[in-house]
Amino acid sequence: MTLWMIIRNSLRQHALSTGITAVSIGLGCGLLMAVWVVNFQTQRAFKNVTGGFDSILGPRGSQLQLVLNSLFHMDSSPGLVNSVDYQIFRKKYQRFYQAAVPIAVGDNFKGYRIVGTTHDLFRTEHTPGQRYELAVGEFFIQNEKQWNKEAVIGDTVARKLGLRLNDKFNPYHGLNFAPNQKPHKDEYIVTGILKPTGAPADRVIWIPIEGLQQMDGHDLKYSGDVSAVLIQMSEDPTARGFGMNSLDSIYNKGTDHLTFVKSTDEVVTRLFEQFAWAEIVLRWVAYLVAVVAAGGVLASIYNSMNERRREFAILRALGASRGTIFSIIVLESAVIAAIGAAIGFVVYAVIMVAAENTLRDEIGVTLHLQEFHNIMVVVPLGLIALGAAVGIVPACKAYSTDVAQNLIPQS
Amino acid sequence: MASTPRAARDNLPLVQLLEIINLAKNYRSPEGGLQRVLDVPEFTLKAGQQLALRGASGTGKTTFLNCIAGILHPDEGVIRLNGQDMVGVSESRRDWLRAQNIGFIFQTFNLLQGYSCMENVLLGMSFGHGTNRDTAAQLLKRVGLKDRLSYRPGQLSVGQQQRVAVARALANQPKLVLADEPTGNLDPQNAIESMQLIRDVCEENKATLLLVSHDQSVLNQFEDCRDLAQINKASREVIV
To answer: What average pLDDT does range A3-9 have in this prediction?
Structure first.
């Protein structure tokens, strides 16, 4: 109780320097945790953004571009898979897959992509155990006999554009929105709004694939072509492995106009590997902030040692041992770090909310602020230990305070 | 007017509390030589006794008290407090013995400025028998500060600060209270009143009082008053 009373009083007496030091530790702590968690959750979220698909077949080009365009609904489209190739794939290699869902892109509404697809997409589990579900309305009409100019929109689209059920809109040509551009004549009606999936699908306006292929202004010569085929390989592990390897060999080595992405996971992993340096830089910046903050604790406490020599002498005269004085300083340093760690959680929350909003709106990937990660224990405890460690230097000075000399007031 | 020593008056058993034999303390002079400032062949104090030592500045009063309290380590000699050796033990043991047995009243009070009266008194208990807010409040009430518990030293008069120092010195229920010029910063009237308070409170708490001062008006209040020069034989000559 006494130690806490002494520490509390000391912190109160040096409230300004304590506050500044604690805030700087908080920044370091919050940054470190946020960098770690954002990196971890982003990687996981990106790897989970498979929409339930293992592989992709698309036009010849970069595998990364194909993945970004087909699953993340980012980047430009690398081109088209012509209808003949698409039909050959569907019929000839049916034994390798359990689902092959075509998508077609090329239009937008106010910057949000319009993706043509089939009902098969909504029947797929976009994440294990979770299928697309409607918050309101129903899926667009699409069967062998007819398809309607109807759209199902993602949660983000509904929120950001304020689109509601039965609202009508005219798509714009291209993937990027140009306000001065004249929209297509085709008018679509919103028949359903999807529940949030925490995936890029939330940022998409889904319409029947025929609608996109036959959109007013599109060349009907290509009306059977698709942008990509999202493939769910066979459940049987042997057939799955064999299928992936075979299709890899057939399309990547045997043709010059198609690309087969064997594993979307691997492509995303390679993407993160390319940007690993950014995470390392951020992490080192956070380390640096934490170390500078710990240096701040040291400087702050060390500088107060001279003015506190009399206090220590009085405490010694009252019976406090050298060890007690030493402990007070080390604990005080640790307490400043602990206050900093607490502030770090606020900093962490602010960064996470900002990152969450940005990622959700820009990419459609969702982070989970409240999700626990070991780093949220390791970093605060590490900083408290670091705080206590830097407290040892001033504590040694306090330890060696000469009692008799310092009991006399210094003028 | 001198009167019968209080302990004797109240028929308290005068058990030996403090025993000093051949105590010596040297300081290094600015010239580099060793100067003996304390040379006490023998000194004793009985439990309940209230003794004043007269000494001018520079006669080793504070050094003597600091040695008894274990704040300074003597170069030679034996100090036994309540039968326990204060010299041949480790520093931490001396700290513990001081916390358990000794209360200190300083000329400058040495109150901690960032702490309230209550906290200052609690600090006096902290390293000894443990804190007790009720006892601390009682002590502050006894010295007339029951309405000032949350005041900081800077918010009190000098006389009130001195009373806080008295309460703090008695907070750990010490067997021995050492008072080093306790009224040195007070005006004559306050000094007399304050000295009476110290003596009364020590008596009520069954604490032995050893006071050093050069203030004759303070010394006159003690039945038992001696010259430090009679006890301390140090010549202050450079010995090495």
So the answer is: 88
